[in-house]
Amino acid sequence: MSVLAAETAAIRASEIPIVGPYPTDRPDGALRVVFLIPYGHAYSLMCNGPMSLYDLVNRTAGIPAYAERALQYDNLVRDGNRLTTPDGEPYRTIESAAPVHQADIVGVSVTNSGDLHSVLRLLDLAGIPRRSADRVPGIHPLVVGGNAGLANPEVLADYLDVVAMGEAEVSFAELLRTLHVNPRTPENDTLVQISRIPGLYVPALYEYDFAPGGGVLAVRPKAPTVPATVNTQFLELRDLHDAHFTYPITDGTAAGLIPVLGCKHSCHFCTLGVPPFREVPIEILTAYLDRVEELGVERIIISAPTFTQYRRREELLNRIRAYSDRAAERGVKVTTIIGSVRADEMTSDYLRDINELGNFGHLFTELNLTQARGIITIAPEFASAELLDIYYKTMRPERVNKTIEQCRDTVINTVMLYFIVGAPGERPEDRLAIADRAKEIRELLDRPDAAVIVKLHGFMPKPGTPGQRLRMSDPEALDRYGDEIAARLRDLVGQPDFDQHYRVQFGEKSRLYLEAICLRGDRRIGHVLEDLYDNGMDPTNLPRDVLVDTLAAHGLDFARHLRHMDDPVLPWHVFNDVDPTTEQTLIKALNNRPGWQ
């Protein structure tokens, strides 16, 4: 047995489809779909974009396809920034020994715009030509991309055949039906037909005029049968598969719930408020938990950054606590991991419920503070009340303070605070006020073991939000801002208290460099990423001068990607649906704030 065969066999043996085995019958002429997931096995099970579509394809009788998964297996060979298979064996899926490159459709999911280079690595690993122009219809797979990292898919326009914008349960299923009826061949490509499916963007069917240094002057479809715009899809709950709200497969260590989609608030810099707010029926979640308890899964993840907006959260937490109590009687500890919450929406009942859970933590924290029993994460974003108003951040400091005071009698002893630095409108004193706010939060928690973690993020405006045109924070400034805030906090509380009770975290400049150009770039940026990849650059340790020089070789300017974008046409013009009036209102409010330019 080969190394990959052994590893995939072990993965199959560890997996349990939570709602029961997948059907093995396949319709005649079923298309083979392979989802490439750029993570190891445990984390891949939490990637609900590809996992929900995997479950949808394999459980829906009317979809003429079956789905498989290929991961970043533990036994792949790392060679610089590349991955190869051991002993040169074909890159395979978990479910089949057939090579990935023999699939009809390959789906790639990118969760962060700074990770777009991972698509090149996975295509190379699979032996699939990187660029769409080098792939032959009917010979090579159709490559479909999706997820939040492709909010600006133009960067990979020359590498992806199709991009699913938004929620893809309907559009991807229709794509599969279309290809089943009209297979792609060298003589008969179906891209124009695919482009007319709502929510699917076919980059090769659009023509762009590029601006010097970066950006676009104009965009137009190449044929009158190609839509001029593509509408991002956000679906009604009835059109979403249950696996959109729950992790469909467990390896026995964790199961996950997504009780809400979207957010009730619409902060001008945040993508959470872009989709409409929807609450998942409690019956779906409790039925899932029934099965989780039957299987004895000991870690439950509530993966929703707006969980406090779920109206039936008390009922859900009570169900989890009942399972936890029954497990405890058998000597088994059940842990609940909860995503970020809005402090202004936390009630005493909510704090009571999570306190009674006993063992809970935060989904993404890798921190292990001394004696930390419970952690909540809060995103004040700004310490300045004026900036909160300008950016339509509705979390008022008074409400946060009340919540922190309520935490005193709970198991919560650690508060993680997320702040944005370098945003337009920010003054130096606004940044330093972050230190004052951290000190105030710990004082309000009022317990000797209280700890505060300050996580700083540079301002990175996202396509699709009212702030999408605003000037981006230069990643180079993040270290300086972080050092200034840490120094201020150290002066306020003294070195001993600072060392014992506070952390100020920032960094990841290399990722931010890539994120900056990928959030703002046109399709020439994809060629820059390809050059960096081919030259062996480590994207986690990318020197600024190397990036600047590589951009220049393609006629692009790094500083131009950071500027305020007042261009009439943005690189993502085809699917840009932000209200111009909202954009202009935000820009006017910033211009009226003195002392920051």
TrEMBL record:
Highest taxon in the source lineage: Bacteria
Family annotation (Gene3D superfamilies): Cobalamin-binding domain, tm_1862 like domain
Pfam families assigned to the protein according to its UniProt record, in alphabetical order: Radical_SAM, Radical_SAM_N2
Domain Radical SAM core: 249-496
GO molecular function: catalytic activity; iron-sulfur cluster binding
InterPro entries per the UniProt record, alphabetical: Elp3/MiaA/NifB-like_rSAM, Radical_SAM_N2, rSAM, rSAM_horseshoe, rSAM_sf
Transmembrane region(s): none
Protein name as annotated: Radical SAM protein
Originating species: Kitasatospora xanthocidica
